[in-house]
């Protein structure tokens, strides 16, 4: 697990990984960070005011909260590029 290099926990070893899913009026964002305090937080929910919902997840194994690969997005980009190059040729025919 990585170590913090700034702040109060400088050079402390993390005890796990944390993923925080924030939903503010339908706009969802995901924050991934190191956890420096223990405790089980799988799906712990916090409600804020005016449509704010936050879910906390914490785990202890390496890469346990890793983001999914974006390979399909890369393939879609190649398909769009291919079609944009092919379209002028088809327009001439």
TrEMBL record:
Keyword terms of this UniProt record: Membrane, Transmembrane, Transmembrane helix
SUPFAM superfamilies, per database record: Snake toxin-like
Transmembrane segments: 73-92
Protein name (Swiss-Prot/TrEMBL): Uncharacterized protein
Species, as recorded: Romanomermis culicivorax (Nematode worm)
Lineage: Eukaryota, Metazoa, Ecdysozoa, Nematoda, Enoplea
